[in-house]
Amino acid sequence: MTDCESIPFLDLVSPHRELEGELMEGVRRALRSASFIGGAVVAEFEEAFAAFCQTRFCVGVGSGTDALRFAMMAAGIGAGDSVITVPNTFIATTEAISQTGALPEFVDIDEHTYNMDPVSLKKYLEVHCILDANSARLVSRRTGRRVVAIIPVHLYGQMAPMDPILRIAKAFGLTVIEDACQAHGAEYYSLQKNRWFRAGCMGSAAAFSFYPGKNLGACGEAGAITTDDEYLARSVRMLRDHGQREKYHHEVEGYNGRLDAIQAHFLNVKIAYLEVWNEQRREAARRYRELLNGHGVGLPSNPEGNSPVFHLFVVRVNDRAGLMKHLAAKKIGTAIHYPIPLHLQDAYRYLEYRKGDFPVAERVASEILSLPMFPQITADQQARVAEAILEFIAQQAPYYHSVAC
Ligand SMILES: *Cc1c(COP(=O)(O)O)cnc(C)c1O
User: Are 203 and 177 in contact (CB under 8 A)?
Assistant: First the structure.
């Protein structure tokens, strides 16, 4: 009964099966040459990823969190500053802000895209910040600190509305750094500039993660910064390597945040498949839409001028716990990204936010569910996921008899 085989939330085994020979070859080469850190393999990947993102520079680092932190530090963000982001993101976004010495501050998200709401952003800057007459700088009433930057997160693989965000940032003199950790290859049509842009090339810099489950994943930890700013790229190169200009000449104190050569090799092999994998994700998203449309399931919004890469396929339902349980009983894996908005996490109690501060993010967090999504998911598997969801919805109506799997 193949019908009852489990469907994983994410399949990280299949994509590596046919690449195993190529992947292992690089490991052998690294062992034989003892080239583990930096070197030509890392440079090759940086060049390939910059080309993929349509930026001048890419700097490989140890993780997406490193990428966010180094990008911010290189942009001059640090102690005494406040940085604005959204409450519904992975905690790495705000960890990186805190690790620079800055404080995270939040603005609410859009009800449909789940990304930063530019209206909330503008309102926040106008109402909750003041222009300090002496320094001519924007100061947060909340923290008393200078507000210096915005980190829009391209959540689930869909780019945040960059035109209005960049316009607002310019008006208030703020730096924009993209958290593109879920959005390798996502595109956004800028009406301002009349062309499509890839994630990672609209802000001053962008951070990418190559955590194994991301659209482009290493076989371990890895990340990168993309930017068109040569000075910023150079700063990041120093920060990732103990602040060295050249060996043992430390211009600043830095970090151990390099991309290792074996991971760079894995990424070099896998980047050749990224466009195809993203297209397969888009195709899978189209199938989910067809299967689920019109049945009372909240589907991901599909705004014009936005071409997401569906890192996740997130639906919205009233009885999420019930649906999750129902799907689990059918051996269908699901997950929640993310169940608790950051402003309500214990880790941020000191920021003194309260329940109700970001009503959209809070409502969304209680209703979202991520369905199985990966390039190799089959139409049959998706049909079974959809069938199980529709069955659950029908079960809530009277006189419905479900068929046991
Ligand atoms: C994965 C992720 C990160 C962190 O990346 P790591 O490589 O795990 O450090 C940051 N932000 C978002 C939105 C992510 O999804």
Answer: yes
